[in-house]
Amino acid sequence: xxxxxxxxxxxxxxxxxxxxxxxxxxxxxxxxxxxxxxxxxxxxxxxxxxxxxxxxxxxxxxxxxxxxxxxxxxxxxxxxxxxxxxxxxxxxxxxxxxxxxxxxxxxxxxxxxxxxxx
Length: 118
Prior knowledge:
This protein is mainly β. 0% of the residues lie in helices and 54% in strands. The chain has strands at 2-6, 9-11, 17-24, 32-38, 45-50, 56-58, 66-71, 76-81, 90-99, 105-109, 113-117. The strands form 2 sheets. Strands 2, 4, 5, 6, 9, 10 and 11 form a 7-stranded mixed beta sheet that branches. It has a 4-stranded antiparallel beta sheet with strand order 1-3-8-7, with no helix packed on it. The chain is elongated.
């Protein structure tokens, strides 16, 4: 079981990036998905959540700029980030949470992808 993020990089302020998070070994269909970030010297904070019913939630700093979406056929969740600011610089993680068919709780995290905005 693994979550693999990609799409990070360096971009100028005002630019855009799209992060991807692909699941291996399990299906994302029934999972609640989240994107988190941690900047140097700061605690990890939640950025966006996509509940398995399709409802999306965003934290105030990214509302109107970031969009979380899911492609079940690719078993992948995306985070489209527009109008990037220097304060968006952080290591971004995706996480999957849910219950298996055997009623076992799971909470998987990826290794992170770095986003740097200058």
